[in-house]
Write a structure and sequence with these properties.
This protein is an alpha/beta fold and 315 residues long. Helices cover 37% and strands 23% of the residues. 31% of the residues are buried.
């Protein structure tokens, strides 16, 4: 079933169908659209007549359930409405009129650095867009972008799955986080050999875990892993207690742990390039709507103002 090629389908029918499917009930869709439920029901019935398939099952107790044909139609109808919206808003450059939902994923360690600033700036520029952030980890977020449940995601451009397109935003270099008492702070840069006898703490999630292991292998050193954690806050607290050091790729401008102990950083000097990029990912097979284009435009502007390598705090 190809909705795009049927001239008898109207945008109003698609609008009513998508609104009802998203709302879950005819009454809720009617409330949101300020219409009578019977009018929305008749519009959907006419759409079903035109496409020749039942799109949803209506039950008083369970609301609206999409049929298999309805699920396919819902995706197509949503894309058509998005394209229609772009025809209205984009040519006129009226950014304030871009509207609708936008789902953005963010790799959890990057979220404190990215989400607050992006949310504030984007909300000011595009107040009618409803942004939903989803924090998660690398493989899960990539899968969600590929399947279309996320429009975009902020990730490191490492181990990128086929079918995804990566737009690099910011180059990041490996840094080692150290306790205030570490003698390695006397160095301007730390080598992997310098860390050979150092107890190491690892951020236990891909792709960073594998990237840091690769960095050690390249330097001919087997790291002495003392502890693994998926929390950057825990990582910093352990370092503040001088329980180990950690190689990281996100070096926030902070020099304190949760306990108020100093955590300082030095760049890691390597024989080969072990840099990475913070990037925004999109699916190659899903057409970007105006909201996603607006988000990418804002992200490029935000990251253009950031230094590629943050200056580490002085000891």
């Amino acid at each position: 079933m190809e909705l795009k090629r049927n001239p008898h389908i109207t945008l109003r029918q698609l609008w009513h169908f998508v609104a009802a499917a998203e709302a879950g009930t005819m009454s809720e869709a009617a409330r949101q659209l300020h219409m009578a439920p019977s009018a929305i029901s008749m519009s959907i019935m006419e759409l079903e007549r035109v496409v020749g398939a039942q799109l949803c099952v209506k039950r008083k107790s369970k609301g609206i359930t999409l049929t298999p044909a309805g699920r396919a139609a819902f995706l197509q109808a949503s894309q058509i409405l998005d394209m229609a919206g772009e025809m209205v808003y984009v040519p006129h450059g009226d950014r304030a009129q871009v509207r609708g939902p936008l789902s953005v994923g963010c790799y959890s360690p990057l979220a404190p650095r990215i989400v607050p600033q992006m949310f504030a700036i984007f909300e000011e520029r595009f107040p009618l867009v409803e942004v939903q952030f989803v924090e998660g980890y690398h493989d899960d977020l990539q899968a969600k972008v590929l399947e279309g449940s996320l429009d975009l995601a902020f990730l490191f451009n490492l181990d990128v799955l086929p079918g995804l397109e990566s737009l690099p935003l910011l180059k990041v270099e490996p840094h080692v986080l150290l306790a205030e008492s570490s003698p390695l702070l006397a160095k301007d840069a730390v080598t992997v050999a310098d860390l050979a006898d150092q107890a190491m703490l690892f951020f236990d999630a891909e792709p960073l875990y594998g990237r840091v292991l690769e960095l050690f292998r390249d330097g001919g050193v087997t790291p002495k892993v003392r502890h693994r954690t998926r929390s950057y806050a825990t990582l910093r607290s352990l370092i503040g207690r001088d329980l180990g050091a950690a190689v990281v790729y996100d070096n926030p401008m902070l020099d304190r742990s949760y306990e108020g102990r100093r955590v300082l950083s030095r760049p890691v000097s390597t024989a080969h390039d072990f840099s990475a990029h913070i990037a925004i990912m999109r699916s190659r097979s899903i057409r970007l709507h105006a909201r996603a284009h607006a988000w990418i435009e804002s992200a490029v502007e935000v990251f253009a103002d950031r230094p590629a390598t943050p200056v580490p705090p002085a000891p």
